[in-house]
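Quarterly update from the structural biology core.
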Amino acid sequence: MILGRIIGTVVATRKDEKLAGKKLLVVRTLDPETGEEEAYAVAVDTVGAGVGETVICVSGSSARLATGMKDHPVDTAIVGIVDTIKLEKPATAARKG
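Predicted structure, tokenized:
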């Protein structure tokens, strides 16, 4: 799964007929530890996400298994809207001697 932030929308008047009526959003992937934005992707929205929201995306065959995407030409799909992110630091081993 991919963590990302919605930064825009894509309007395509000509596209595969199976994508008609599907909302396309520009997602910028995020590093969960630093919050730094990384690569860009265009994703099909399956959950009603909007610009500025942090989302969970899936890609490849997982995207085609997302709700309503079966047999659609989809490489990345938004499957969740993130409420909060909490990272736990790993416990450090006690030093000997």
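The mean pLDDT is 89.
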